[in-house]
Structures are given as C-alpha cells and as structure tokens.
C-alpha cells in the first residue's frame, strides 16, 4: 500500500536568479526508507531556465545532483522562443525529518515580451514526477512512480 505523499515546492530569493526548493514527505513511516533514492523529474516552464553549466559546477561541489534532460537547449532565448525543459534531480534525505527528502534547483527567469499594463508575469511550475528506488537487501528491490 502507498502512504500519503506530501510534495511542497517553494521558490526562494527575489529577482531573476532564484532557487526552487522541492520537499517530499511520506505520510507514514516507511520501513527501510534510508535505503531508498528519490529521483525527481522536474518540468521547467518556458518562462524559466536552468543553466546546465551551473548544474555541472554544483555537482562537482557536491551541492546538488541534477542533470538536464532536454537537448538543444538555449539559455539565451526569451520565453516566447523557448521550450519547456526537463531536469532530473536526486533528492537527499532530510536530516531533520526521517520521512522526508529535499532537493534544490537554481532557476532563472527568462526575458518576456514587454507589457503595456502592470508589467507582472506569472509563471506556473507544475508538480514533478517522483521515482523512488529502494534496495531492501536480499536481492529485493522496489520501485515507486508517482505521476503528476
């Protein structure tokens, strides 16, 4: 049986350069959760971009484990000429919550067309896909896939 899964996404910082914090909490204690890895497939809308070179630098510094999936990705394109992209992120277990995982992803705003009104633009970040792999020992491995 599957326990309740609570997904929370929070955008940190102000301005064009922000961080997306993704937290996943499993509603009931899952035995052996420490043997699990949680992979997050985050969809990045056209109004934002993730810099693949920045991700590579953060991987080298062991700050985050994330990689771009999308090909032919142009970080310079404005939102109206760009496409949605995808990023795979390994979440880390939260040291302050035994049933929780968290990941962070640096995101940047793209330039938009000029507005004649108030100048505000809203960008919706959809829920990611969650893929969990657990190694329970004795050759027993289990997978969980949660679609949006």
Keywords summarizing the entry:
elongated; mainly beta; 44% strand; 148 residues
Protein model, in words:
With 148 residues, the chain is mainly β. The protein contains one helix and nine strands. The chain has one helix at residues 52-60, and strands spanning 5-12, 17-26, 36-44, 48-49, 65-68, 85-93, 100-109, 129-135, 141-146. Strands 1, 2, 3, 4, 5, 6, 7, 8 and 9 form a nine-stranded antiparallel sheet that branches. The model has no long low-confidence stretch (mean pLDDT 85).
What is the secondary structure topology, with strand pairs?
Elements (H helix, E strand, L loop, with lengths): L4 E8 L4 E10 L9 E9 L3 E2 L2 H9 L4 E4 L16 E9 L6 E10 L19 E7 L5 E6 L2
Helix-strand sequence: EEEEHEEEEE
How many individual β-strands? 9
Average pLDDT confidence is: 85
Question: Structural class, from secondary structure content?
Answer: mainly beta
Unreliable spans are none
- Helical fraction: under 10%
Which band does the percent of strand residues land in? 35-45%
For the terminal residues, how far apart are their CA atoms?
A: 19 Å
Note the main sheet: 9 strands, antiparallel
Shape: elongated
The number of helical segments is 1
- Please state the CA-atom Rg, rounded to the nearest Å: 17 Å
Pathway: Glycolipid biosynthesis; glycosylphosphatidylinositol-anchor biosynthesis
Organism: Catagonus wagneri
Family: Belongs to the PIGX family.
Subcellular location: Endoplasmic reticulum membrane
């Amino acid at each position: 049986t599957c326990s309740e899964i609570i997904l929370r996404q929070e955008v940190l910082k102000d301005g064009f350069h922000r961080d997306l914090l993704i937290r996943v909490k499993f509603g009931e204690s899952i035995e052996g959760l420490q043997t699990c890895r949680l992979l997050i497939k985050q969809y990045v809308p056209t109004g934002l971009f993730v810099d693949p070179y920045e991700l590579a630098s953060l991987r080298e510094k062991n700050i985050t484990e994330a990689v771009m999936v999308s090909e032919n990705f142009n970080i310079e394109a404005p939102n109206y000429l760009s496409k949605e992209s995808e990023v795979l992120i390994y979440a880390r277990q939260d040291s302050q919550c035994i049933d929780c995982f968290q990941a962070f992803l640096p995101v940047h705003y793209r330039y938009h067309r000029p507005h004649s009104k108030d100048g505000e633009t809203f960008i919706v970040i959809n829920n990611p896909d969650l893929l969990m792999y657990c190694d329970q020992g004795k050759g027993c491995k289990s997978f969980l896939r949660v679609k949006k």
